[in-house]
Design goal:
By secondary structure, the chain is an alpha+beta fold. It contains 17 helices and twelve strands. The strands form three sheets. The chain has a five-stranded antiparallel sheet. Strands 7-6-12-11-10 form a five-stranded antiparallel sheet.
Length: 378
Amino acid sequence: MGELGEIVDAAAFDPQHWSLFIERLQAAIPGTKICIQVSAMDSSLPLFFSSVGWSEQSIAAYKDYYWSVNPWQEAWLEATMSKVERSELYFSHRALEKTEFFADFLQPEGSVDGATGVKFAAHRGRQATLAIHSDIGEADRVEVQARSLIQRIVPRMRSALEANRITGDRPLPSGGHSLLDGLLDAAFLVDENCRLRAANSAALALASEMNVLNISPKDIVRFRQPAANDAFARLVSSACSQLLRLKDRARPDDLVLDLPEGSYAIAALPVARAQTGFALALYSGQIDALVVMRHRPPPASRDGATLLRRAYGLTAAEARLALALDRGGTLVEIAARLGVSYETVRAQLKAAFTKTGTRKQRDLLALVIKATSGNLSE
């Protein structure tokens, strides 16, 4: 598992390492076919896709058509974030056997009618998933092995994906300012004491505004929310710690700052200070933390709720639920956030489907995104 974590860390700087990651994962879980993809409900193709074990013809057919009719795509919307689970929890095997996807895509590939996977990132209709396919009869074994191998590195997978937001699909250059300047989001390098070593223009602009973060006279990165500083220090210490990586302990999850103007998801990844390539060697010298901050606009605005209510006749509670879909999560998690029962959420969702003429959460979420972006006509 230590090697898998190292490869994921390297994928932050060179996306081609995702292919190596799933190749090593397949070797550790024999009898499987694996794919990793980033998809968006408003896109006709996966935004990112890498696979191992599948025939070239099947992958071409998947990207051309079968991706759009994959019933597991809808199931992933309901999946619990960051938890390795079996597909049966969200879409039964009996239902799968009745689909075109099963008959024309899965069956020709052999025994891959079972799947274990994890949704490791999601935001505004986009989600990143890892799926490990196997014979349904092998599902118990595959689930146990998958959990032991990847459950604890899921936060590292999400962090690496955050760093992949670069201009184009080229690898990031190694070291210092050139690495930072390749990132679209605010990013900076800090040592284990949170002392700033380098920053890109987006991070410097954010610091100059002083409403999210600032740089102390001793070059220490500090946040506007005092409570966030301890959590940030733990995140950075984890990324910089050789001992932590050697023992392969679980890394803290990304830090989220909720502010009136929106939230920031903050990820930290280890970078060898004298790095000459993209592989992050276990026994390299001084380790710094590459910190990436992604801004997320406010998920639910009054204007969005008003537009939904006026355009479709939703009640206040139904509009509130529809807006809550924007933050992702299962219906159980959404019910907990809203402080209502699961049965109430299900009833409100059903009513919202009827009034908006939608049948799936992804279609309702598309309306929510339009409403909160001001693109929904009344």
